[in-house]
Design brief:
The protein has 4 helices and 3 strands, in the order ααββααβ. The chain folds into 2 domains: about 60 residues; about 80 residues, no CATH class. Helices cover about 50% and strands about 15% of the residues. α1 runs antiparallel to α2. With about 160 residues, it is α+β, with helices and mostly antiparallel strands.
Length: about 160
């Protein structure tokens, strides 16, 4: 027997003893909550699938297709317009983090190379990312033995103004 059926049976038994319908209303709210829980789980799964596809489009398929179409400059920039008038452009970004177990050595490297001000009790990931982008732009990539560095290009949509 299902939980919903058990609740309905309980409500019918209790409801015969109450005249105001309070238990029936309470059981209804419980049923609604159970239905919403199922809907939320389905929606979370759908959102994960949609997010995965969105990331595939923006991080892989569109940048690759733009490259093949000759729409990307040597600097990795490029853009085009869609039929709806939206602009799709490319941006470069990167993830930067200290290699596990290399924290002290990475901090030493930062100090030795004049970047000790970045070191806090913890280096915030956005600070490290900005630093990594800056150093890469200056032709001084971070040592990969100390830092996880993953540079990538992704597509960005700019909707036309209405």
């Amino acid at each position: 027997m299902s939980l919903v059926q058990d609740m309905q049976d309980d409500a019918e038994r209790v409801d015969t003893k109450t005249s105001d319908g309070t238990m029936k209303d309470l059981v209804g709210k419980g049923e609604e909550m159970i239905e919403l829980t199922a809907t939320i789980e389905i929606t979370k799964t759908e959102l994960k699938d949609l997010t995965r596809r969105y990331d595939e489009l923006r991080k892989e398929l569109i940048p690759e297709a733009m490259q093949v179409a000759g729409l990307v400059t040597d600097a990795g920039k490029g853009k085009y317009s869609t039929a709806s008038g939206a602009t799709v452009s490319l941006r470069g970004d990167m993830f930067v983090g200290i290699q596990r177990g290399q924290e002290e050595t990475a901090h030493e490297w930062l100090r030795k190379n004049g970047h000790g001000a970045l070191i806090k009790p913890t280096v915030h990931s956005s600070t490290l990312r900005a630093f990594g982008k800056e150093q890469t732009g200056l032709g001084k990539p971070l040592p990969e033995t100390l830092f996880n560095v993953f540079a990538f290009t992704y597509a960005v949509i700019t909707k036309p103004r209405s």
